[in-house]
């Protein structure tokens, strides 16, 4: 039986739109409802129980809008709340850490994988745990990147025009602002991976695909960089089919957005850039609404 209801997706801010974009590209009949908790971003420096609470609030908000499946498009929130949401919700829940780990495992030949993620994701040990459950011989090296999320959110709000190549594979010399700041951060984050013969690095934060060209430059061309986006889409498609809840093939999808951001126009502008389509419908949600539902 086809199911025309929306897929719910959430992140601490704009980063999860890297996942929403690939879902919209690859599953063109599926309607999406995206929630960005911009006001409380970043999650990566917060304690796990606080992130878990935020994730539960947002999941409840989305479920109240009758979504058919939930994608936690945030590694930090996946690490903190995947299990509890999977156990407590009546709909299928998909996180990004399993898919991200799978993407890395599929690529590595040296069996040495680097993870760049937020402090919270690294501290949770979720990536090593998931990777070792699949292949215990793989060595995992983690690098917490404390300020990349803020850098991405800041660039997107302040400097969008001059950084239009963020989602492309090539970092051009004229993208000076991005080069200077992002390379510093990527170089620092890549340092623990030097001399380890790591051939694959997982961008374990959904904000980081926007810094991929900088990470590639810092890591060198021999290292393959993967993110969770493609594998997450494959997992979503698999679960939709397995549960028999795919959208009717003829459905023209709606894309709706909600955010706790103070500046909706900034969210719209930056969000449209990442999503690759205009964010025409954005609902403003207050923290009060989330906390008292
Ligand atoms: N996109 C989130 C993640 O994947 C960013 C975390 C944050 O808000 O610090 O981890």
Ligand names: D-glutamic acid
- Assign a percent range to the helix content: 40-55%
Element order: H for helix, E for strand: EHEHEHEHEHHEHHEHEHEHEH
Instruction: Give the spatial strand order of the biggest sheet.
Output: 4-3-1-2-9-10
List the SSEs and their pairings:
Blueprint: E1 7-11, H1 17-26, E2 32-36, H2 48-63, E3 69-72, H3 75-88, E4 93-94, H4 97-107, E5 112-117, H5 119-124, H6 126-134, E6 139-144, H7 148-158, H8 176-190, E7 200-204, H9 212-219, E8 224-227, H10 229-243, E9 255-259, H11 264-275, E10 281-284, H12 287-292
Parallel strand pairs: 1-2, 1-3, 2-9, 3-4, 5-6, 5-7, 7-8, 9-10
Helix pairs in contact: 1-10, 2-3, 4-6, 4-10, 8-9
The structure holds D-glutamic acid.
Short description:
The protein is α/β, with parallel strands linked by helices. The protein has helices spanning 17-26, 48-63, 75-88, 97-107, 119-124, 126-134, 148-158, 176-190, 212-219, 229-243, 264-275, 287-292, and strands at 7-11, 32-36, 69-72, 93-94, 112-117, 139-144, 200-204, 224-227, 255-259, 281-284. D-glutamic acid is lined by residues 11-12, 15, 41-44, 74-76, 118, 121, 149, 205-207.
Overview of the structural elements:
By secondary structure, the chain is α/β, with parallel strands linked by helices. The protein has 2 domains: 151 residues, Rossmann fold (3-Layer(aba) Sandwich), CATH 3.40.50; 131 residues, Rossmann fold (3-Layer(aba) Sandwich), CATH 3.40.50.1860. The chain is 45% helix and 16% strand. A 6-stranded parallel β-sheet has the order 4-3-1-2-9-10, sandwiched between helices. A 4-stranded parallel β-sheet has the order 6-5-7-8, sandwiched between helices. The chain is globular and about 50 Å long. The relative contact order is 0.20. α1 crosses α10 and α2 packs across α3. The chain binds D-glutamic acid. D-glutamic acid binds next to α3.
């Amino acid at each position: 039986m086809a199911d025309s209801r929306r897929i719910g997706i959430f992140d601490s801010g704009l980063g999860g739109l890297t996942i929403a974009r690939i879902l919209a590209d690859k599953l063109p009949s599926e309607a999406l409802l995206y929630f960005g908790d911009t006001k409380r971003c970043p999650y990566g420096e917060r304690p796990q129980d606080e992130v878990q609470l935020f994730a539960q609030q947002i999941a409840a908000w989305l479920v109240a809008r009758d979504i058919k499946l939930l994608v936690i498009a945030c590694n930090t929130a996946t690490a903190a709340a995947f299990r509890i949401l999977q156990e407590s919700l009546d709909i299928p829940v998909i996180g990004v850490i399993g898919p991200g780990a799978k993407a890395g495992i599929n690529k590595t030949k040296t069996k040495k994988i680097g993870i760049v993620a937020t402090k919270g994701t690294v501290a949770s040990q979720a990536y090593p745990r998931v990777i070792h459950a699949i292949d215990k011989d793989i060595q995992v090296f983690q690098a917490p990147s404390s300020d990349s999320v803020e850098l991405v959110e800041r660039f997107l709000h302040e400097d969008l025009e001059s950084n239009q190549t963020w989602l492309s594979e090539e970092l051009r010399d004229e993208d000076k602002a991005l080069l200077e700041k992002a390379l510093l951060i990527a170089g620092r984050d890549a340092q623990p991976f030097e001399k380890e013969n790591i051939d694959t690095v997982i961008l374990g934060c959904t904000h980081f695909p926007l810094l991929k060209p900088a990470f590639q430059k810092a890591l060198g061309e021999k290292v393959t960089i993967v993110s969770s986006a493609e594998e997450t889409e494959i997992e979503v498609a698999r679960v939709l089919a397995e549960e028999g809840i795919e959208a009717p093939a003829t459905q023209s999808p709606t894309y709706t957005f909600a955010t706790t951001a103070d500046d909706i126009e900034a969210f719209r502008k930056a969000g449209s850039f990442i999503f690759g389509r205009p964010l025409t419908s954005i609902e403003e949600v207050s923290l009060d609404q989330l906390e008292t539902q």
